[in-house]
Amino acid sequence: MRPLLRVEGLAKNFPMRGFGAWLDAMRGRGSDVRAVDGVSFDIATGETLGLVGESGCGKSTVARCVLRLVEPTSGSVRLDATDVTSVDAAGLQRLRRSMQMVFQDPTAALNPRLSVRQMVEEPLRLHSDAPARERREKTDAMLVAVGLGLEFGDRYPHELSGGQKQRVNIARAMVTDPRFVVLDEPTSALDVSLRSRIILLLETLRETLGLSYLFISHDIATVKYLAHRVAVMYLGVIVELTDTRELFARPLHPYTKALLSAVPIPDPEAHRERLVLAGEVPSPIDVPAGCRLRGRCPFAQAVCAEPVSLREVAPDHFVACHLVAG
Amino acid sequence: MTDSALSAVSTRPKSRLPAMWNRLRRNPVTFGALTVIVVLALVAILAPVIAPFDPDATDPAVALEGPSWRNLLGTDVYGRDQLSRLIFAARLDLIVPCCATMAALVVGALIGALSGYRGGWMDQLIMRMVEAVLAFPALVLAMGLTAALGNSIGNIILTLAITQVPIYIRLIRGEMLRVREMEYAEAARAVGNPPWRIVLVHLLPNCIPPLIVQATLAMGFALLTMAALSFLGLGIRPPDSEWGEMTAEGANHMVTGEWWLFVFPGLAVMITVLAFNLVGDGLRDFLDPRMRGVR
Amino acid sequence: MSLLELSDLTVHFATDAGPVEAVHKVNLWVGAGEIMGLVGESGSGKTVTAFSILRLIRPPGRIVRGSIRLEGCDLLALSEEEMRRVRGARISLIPQNPRTALNPVITVGGQIARLFELHRGLPARAAWERGVEALDQVGVPEAPRRMRQYAHQLSGGTCQRVMIAMALASSPQLLIADEPTTGLDVSIAARILDLLRELGSRTGAAIILITHDLGVVAETCHRVSVMHAGQLVESASVRTLFQQPMHPYTRALVRSIPRIDREVALEPIPGSVPSLLNASPGCRYVTRCLDRLDICRQILPPLELIDPDHRVACHAVEASRAAVA
Question: Of the residues A2, A242, B41, C1, which has the maximum number of CB atoms within 10 A of its CB?
């Protein structure tokens, strides 16, 4: 069956400008920020793909490229039969109905001057010809579906709590019955005790509305609850991609192992092997040749200077590492 | 640090009006200035009812008489009652700056929004033009424009508007640069808004607060410019009365001692401009912390 | 005697609508050299409590009642002058946003060195050397180069290390770390916590670690105090708290967090944090509590000692203990 979303070879360069960048180019040093450097994945209908990684790995850029909020430098994105990357402006406008995004900072993502109802109704106004009454009904239904009473419709963002604001964000993204929603760190700005509610809400909505999610997060525990499959990103590329359960039970890439071992566990008796990577994440301007983890990986060998790509080393378990046997 | 403690108090403000009224009462200066402006507006509107005499009625018998019970602010060389003339002049002195400011505001906001949102060469071009206009001292520019355009009321409004437009363009452009980076701008795009809608519906309304403050301050300045133009003989022509023009006329009588001919019109200008300025200052404080709900 | 003892601490914030009771009769102990986790959601009053210790609460906030004893001496009774000698010298703060806490126009080295000049009375050159040493001790690589850099040139993790170095400059007895890992990547956060643990044991300073992350608490702290809506609900050693949480809120909190070590369903905490405006005089968890009794709304449950080093403020818990006894 054809996947709902197919991303192939997605890349995004941000060229550096200014005198310093010109000097660097003269010196033969790379002058582009290679935020995303060749990323490919599929998402099936009704599936949630988790995309994890630390800051600077490019996951937010991937999200924006998939929705074409940022123009990718190369690669393709297909939503069903349509090629998102090559469609024209009018077509893109129409496509927006089917692919939406829930933003990270609930406060910044809401226009302080518009009421909740105005914001949730707007996508309907833009994408459907339905009369006002129908739009209003759909808006109300959506507010209820995300757990907000109808009285919230007339409120303004500054009158809402963080959790309520995020629900408005979610309502706005789902009101047009999209097929595919990008969740960009939807719980990171929320209090720990609120996260579980939003997670459960997102899961319920996925089931009832038949959605597919691309769930971006640096909160690995949350990803474990929502995602069917997980992709781990580092410095612009995917280093491991597999089923969620498999990833947590048998992480294969050294970066994944290091990442998982660093997540704090609320159990003082739990003792784990911590895998610590040396140094810090290098700048995405000066990407090391070959395996990107090379300078920091405790297992690095000579072969790691060779370029590496995702290989299927076990059924549906892809790793980009020379040292993991297929 | 205190924000999270206070934001846990997610209260619904009962209604905005009583809260606003309270804050206004606590700020006597702003309150006073606002009252002055309201009174002036009423005076201008009710001029035919309030004025004791017809402002154009001449009465040579009582010419050049100081303040008396009959003519509270004295009479001019033609015997016209000064108080009535001042009252009727209030109309022009309030309408012209207001119209000029509104016009400048609308045009300036639109151009500034375009410039700030699009950026690129258009932005650069507009900014250079703005800077060119701003290089002229406002009064000199106004003088030049009235000389070129003529001094009918419409042209005076146009002149005053032109001197103000660059300020608003710069102001809105600055706000637009800030606001277009906000996540809700990106969200508006993600939802499928075309660019013009993003600017008009989402971004521009969020650029307005500093605009309002600037506009109230600018109205005072426009009034001063208009009065200065009239004083120099370039502004409103008789028989339309206008405070600046009255002051100019009155200045001719400084030596002969008919002080009431220039003091009162001058005071009128001063009080009005001061009132506008104080309201502007008060608005600045008023608009921002209101969001917090904490005193 | 504990190093730090808070008794009956109550802090109010004045607003247009009335006083917001951000902290309500909080009792807390911190022993010398131990790491105490202060846990709660936002609005729980944990940051306000910590800032009260440093007397950094400014109008419209006010410490209404209570005492804060540092080695027996009540900090609330000191003059501002005397308190200034305590702040930064005996009690240090590691603030929440390390990058914004640093002055953007002064070099990092300039800021650290200044602290050494102030607290140790060292001349400029010696202070700079000590600064380099301090950065070394907190694990900042290439310390001499970093000293000459500005805040915006440093990564989040490095900024945090700089703040920790600055906090330790005066060899304080107590460090207050306000959400030291929020906003940091997981692996960087882990290393910061390692650093805090190590420094705590090396210098003998006690640490109050403010956080909402129970995982951080489990891995780093010796003891934990849980706060809800301005009230302290449970206080215990880390092992005891996680093995036998007694207060309904603590138990609900543990069940509501996603975790990677177990397969358990997520159970969100019912209800929401009550308004701190005109809050109830009794237990503030009453609107969300599944075990509530009639008495809970009216009367504040006292902090009772259940086991050695396990204190709970809950009528329901008391009632069930009495029933067993």
Answer: A242
Task: Give the span between the Cα atoms of C253 and C41, in whole angstroms.
Answer: 9
The residue extents of the domains of chain B are 27-62+69-288
Domain C4-79+226-324's class? alpha beta
Average pLDDT over residues A150-167: 89
DSSP A283: P
The pLDDT of residue C209 = 95
User: What value, to the nearest 5°, has the Cα angle with vertex C81 and ends C76 and C86?
Assistant: 65
Selecting from C22, C60, C229 the residue whose C-beta is nearest the C-beta of B294 gives C60
Contact assignment for B10 to A159 by CB distance below 8 Å: yes
Gap from B12 CA to chain A (nearest CA, Å): 6
With 0-12 / 13-18 / 19 or more C-beta atoms within 10 angstroms meaning exposed / middle / buried, residue A122 is buried
Q: Using CB atoms, list chains with 3+ pairs below 8 Å to chain B.
A: A, C
State pLDDT tens for residues C54-83: 999 888 888 999 999 998 889 988 888 888
- The per-residue pLDDT for A123 is 92
C-alpha C78, offset from chain centre: 22
Contacts of C273 in chain B (CB under 8 A): 8
Do B5 and C275 make contact, defined as CB atoms within 8 angstroms? no
For the entire predicted model, the pTM comes to 0.82
Instruction: Quickly name the fold that domain B27-62+69-288 has.
Output: MetI-like fold (1.10.3720)
Q: Give whole-number Cα distances, C161 to B49, B249, C94, in Å.
A: 75, 73, 10
Task: Yes or no: say if C195 and C22 are a contact pair by the CB < 8 Å rule.
Answer: no
Return the residue in A167, A265, A272 with the most chain C beta carbons within 10 A, the one to mutate for interface testing. Answer: A265
* Domain extents in chain C: 4-79+226-324
Nearest to C258 among A225, A267, A276 (CB): A225
Tell me what ipTM this predicted complex has: 0.83
The domains of chain A, with CATH numbers, are 5-98+178-193+206-319 (3.40.50.300), 112-177 (no CATH)
> Does A161 contact chain C (CB < 8 Å)?
yes
Q: Are the C-beta atoms of B167 and A66 separated by less than 8 Å?
A: no
